[in-house]
Specification:
The chain has 397 residues and is α/β, with parallel strands linked by helices. Helix content is 42%, strand content 12%. The longest helix has 22 residues, at 296-317.
Amino acid sequence: MNGQVFGVGMKLAARVESVSPSMTLIIDAKAKAMKAEGIDVCSFSAGEPDFNTPKHIVEAAKAALEQGKTRYGPAAGEPRLREAIAQKLQRDNGLCYGADNILVTNGGKQSIFNLMLAMIEPGDEVIIPAPFWVSYPEMVKLAEGTPVILPTTVENQFKVSPEQIRQAITPKTKLLVFNTPSNPTGMVYTPDEVRAIAQVAVESDLWILSDEIYEKILYDGAQHLSIGAASPEAYERSVVCSGFAKTYAMTGWRVGFLAGPVPLVKAATKIQGHSTSNVCTFAQYGAIAAYENSQDCVQEMLAAFAERRRYMLDALNAMPGLECPKPDGAFYMFPSIAKTGRSSLDFCSELLDQHQVATVPGAAFGADDCIRLSYATDLDTIKRGMERLEKFLHGIL
Ligand code: GLU
């Protein structure tokens, strides 16, 4: 049964009208709905590891439930989790944080949203290199700021240069969004490249939002440098946004965090205290187990991603009409479809409707001549999906 649909006379806020829905979530929901109807869909849509959450993490959350960790907790997060995150950032990233510098959020997504609301004033400009994750510009708009998009090219491995950032800076520029390893391209900035970008931010008095959600998903010896570790000055003006979803196959748990200067953490906590309050209490105990125990499970998932990456990259580059750069991190391929003469939206719609292969149009990431495929799915689906994609390409070229 359908509910009331018209909402007589309702005028929605302008801030919502200016924002597009999340394309990654729409396509993922469509692919899952088709599967639920019994349709054999090969889905490469959302970046969601297909693995179950490691057992010791699940057991820790179950034990927390049994122990009655089912009540409201502090809005900023369970003290032990905040401490565990601070220690992880010191140990793995060389960032000197204490528990006071940490806010536990509902996924990495809420850490970014809270930061935008806490920092952006109407008219503030936020620099976002493209291709970008779908939600960055929309969050800036929801915070009434202005996204300033910097295009990059495949020839430059989709990486923004320090000079490009320098030229985009105006008196209104407040924040740079920096994401490495990148969603959607999978590119990883080298430590030297990170230092050069940090230097621009320092010279120009910019804040840096460093989205590091894919930091552990690296291949072929690629290295991750947290931009706040580039220099003491960069540390002063960086905020890390991250979470447990991608590294520990915990997408549905919704546990992420923001790490940064205490006044910002307090401001973001205030926002969270009036919106969602604490993250699900027993889920936080699962996250504690993720950081306090062996990291072997991460290595096991990484080995599987590496195999899938090799297979998918070779398959895509052997197909007519596609060109795909080699990604060093995350679990995405971002091939160019320019030679097919189609918009990314048309390409993805036809592919899904005619061959039941779900991919995300590059337009959603600011690159209409590309599509994104997530290979965080099993090898059999990848093999079947690549066969279908090849058939589709032969049909249209
Ligand atoms: N971040 C993932 C993706 O890009 C999950 C979906 C989303 O939140 O955008 O596919």
